[in-house]
């Protein structure tokens, strides 16, 4: 099949996306597909090949590794040759329209929030993963937690804050510590912190102020565990144990920074509760093909749902490929399974 693997974009998670997508594209080529890797923001501006020719003469793939530093999006914007206000680069839609399907290797805003999914729906282009509505709901941590709470799923207490610089000190004085501070619509733990003092909270609020709405969440001490869902069934849970600090951006994507254990060494009842809740949230949000839910299991064994990811990472250290491997699904088979579901009609709601 002719496949476009779409990556990058104007997201704080673009570096993770490029790494994931490079590996996906390599796997699809090894499976015999004519897969073309395209950065959603830059498009085809650096190639002289026509869109049709790209599928016949596949461009070489570069090695990709996730940088320890978050991307400088202003520098990314400035480096594009095509001076257009569009967040979709030159020739992207034309190329995708020629493909049998688009494999979405995007993460974060513009890719995981339903907007590109809606555009593809209007154009009749098949794509992997969930549709625009489920993607939009899952991207918004506040809406996701409201739906979880209404469905009887335990989630840490939270509040949403939109504020200016003049409100930071007053807000910091009204929050119980420790707490978790994170953007309402970002992933990869970008902007996430666990302040334990008022001074740390003020710093966290200042850092997140340009990002818009912020989630102030109850801190629950416990084990960090994730559960993926693939085609209607939950996979074995995976426990995440950072060697230093918490599961932040650096610990997520730097090899050796975190110990990951799959299946999680946990009692059968808790494992069942985790897997049932992951599947319940996947279904509740109307998600398709695959997702990954994040949990905390506290010291008394209570399960707390945190958030859900509709386009889980596919880097060498990502969690979903490890969970799939635990049930005998290797990386290439996982990519093919996700692609087959797109061609079969997923990603249209």
Please provide a written account of the structure:
The chain is an alpha+beta fold and about 350 residues long. The protein has 3 domains: about 1-125, Rossmann fold (3-Layer(aba) Sandwich), CATH 3.40.50; about 140-155 and about 220-335, D-amino Acid Aminotransferase, Chain A, domain 1 (2-Layer Sandwich), CATH 3.30.470; about 160-220, Dna Ligase, domain 1. It is about 35% helix and about 20% strand. It is built from 13 helices and 12 strands. The chain has helices spanning about 15-30, 50-55, 75-80, 90-100, 115-125, 130-140, 140-150, 170, 200-210, 250-255, 270-285, 320-325, 330-345; strands spanning about 1-5, 35-40, 100-105, 160, 180-185, 215-220, 220-230, 235, 240, 260, 290-300, 305-310. Strands 7, 8, 9, 10, 11 and 12 form a 6-stranded antiparallel beta sheet that branches. Helix 1 links the parallel strand 1 (about 1-5) and strand 2 (about 35-40). The chain is globular, with a radius of gyration of 20 Å. It starts with a strand and ends in a 6-residue tail after the last helix.
């Amino acid at each position: 099949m002719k496949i476009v693997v779409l990556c990058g974009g104007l997201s704080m998670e673009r570096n993770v996306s490029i790494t994931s997508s490079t590996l996906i594209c390599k796997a699809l080529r090894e499976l015999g597909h004519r897969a073309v890797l395209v950065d959603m923001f830059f498009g085809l501006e650096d190639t002289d090949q026509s869109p049709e020719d790209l599928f016949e003469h596949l461009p070489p793939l570069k090695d990709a590794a996730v940088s320890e530093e978050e991307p400088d999006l202003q520098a990314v914007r400035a480096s594009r040759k095509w001076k257009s206000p569009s967040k979709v680069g030159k020739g992207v839609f034309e190329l995708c329209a020629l493909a049998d399907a688009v494999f979405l290797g995007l993460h974060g805003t513009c890719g995981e929030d339903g907007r590109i999914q809606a555009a593809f729906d209007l154009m009749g282009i098949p794509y992997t993963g969930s549709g625009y509505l489920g993607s939009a709901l899952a991207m918004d941590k506040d809406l996701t937690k409201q739906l979880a709470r209404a469905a009887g799923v335990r989630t840490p207490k939270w509040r949403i804050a939109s504020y200016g610089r003049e409100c930071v000190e007053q807000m910091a004085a009204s929050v119980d510590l420790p707490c978790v501070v994170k953007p309402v619509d970002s992933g990869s733990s970008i902007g996430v912190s666990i302040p334990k003092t008022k001074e740390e909270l003020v710093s966290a609020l200042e850092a997140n102020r340009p990002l818009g709405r912020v989630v102030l969440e109850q801190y629950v001490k416990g084990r960090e565990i994730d559960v993926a869902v693939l085609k209607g069934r939950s996979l074995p849970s995976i426990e995440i144990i950072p060697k230093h600090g918490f599961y932040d951006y650096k610990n997520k994507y730097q090899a050796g920074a975190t110990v990951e254990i799959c299946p999680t060494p946990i009692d059968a009842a808790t494992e069942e509760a985790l897997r049932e809740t992951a599947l319940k949230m996947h279904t509740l949000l109307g998600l398709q093909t695959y997702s990954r839910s994040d949990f905390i299991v506290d010291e008394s064994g209570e399960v707390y749902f945190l958030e859900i990811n509709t386009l889980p990472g596919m880097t060498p250290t990502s969690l979903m490929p490890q969970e799939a491997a635990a049930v005998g699904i290797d990386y290439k088979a996982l990519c093919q399974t996700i692609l087959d579901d797109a061609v079969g009609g997923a990603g249209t709601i």
